[in-house]
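Kindly review this protein for my students:
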Amino acid sequence: MARPTYQRVADTLRQRIIAGDYAPGDRLPSRQDLAAEFEVGMRVAADAVQQLVAGGYVVSRTGSGSYVRSRPPVRRLTRSWYREARSGSPFRADMAAQAVRGGWESSSRSTTAPEAIAHRLAIDPDDPVMRTQYTFTGDDEPVMLSTSWEPLEITRGTEVVLPENGVYSGRGVVERMRAIGQRIVQAGEIVTARPASADEADNLQVTRGSVVLVIQRTYYTEDCPVETADIVVPPDRYELAYMIPVGQDGT
């Protein structure tokens, strides 16, 4: 089946943007000019531009026209056991290293573990967990989202049951768990990509349907998992850098 005409026009314009024929900040030709160049109707030209807006390539300004979107500088998020094992917030340390003011907002509530989360935590489905949702920011702009789950069997009645309340507020998972005698020895991560949900797109201030990276992270003691999280990152703003420790014997 042939692709819709507006889609073919949008594909051509997208390739021009990627190739640098239209630089960030450049104004696209008017819809009248696009209609004339591609020998299509005004409605087709308008739909093509809207496709570029939806894809995050172009922004429309009322009464002014459509402009190639300026891409923010790509910053780095370091995935490193060394950083996790230190005191304080690894995220805030990452931001400070790039002269960015890091912060976050969070909310926690006790609930039951969905089946997939229960599997990751090696607990029974519907076992109680503390679920915490985060929006991380850099210079007050959203950087990433995270939803974490911790088994209440481990944290209930301790001073770290609420991750962002009490004396260990703002500390990483490793330090918080160490405070209640849970020594984390390993972390595992699975990285995938998918379209952002409507809520994720709104919270990250990206176009709905934009592709995001999802990190499924789980922390383990020698005995069991103690925390798992889904971390959502927009890849056009942040890259992931993995630092892997190597022992003196080469292992």
Notes: The mean pLDDT is 86. The first strand starts at residue 58 and ends at 61. The domain at 5-68 is CATH 1.10.10.10 (Arc Repressor Mutant, subunit A). The chain has two domains: 5-68, 75-243.
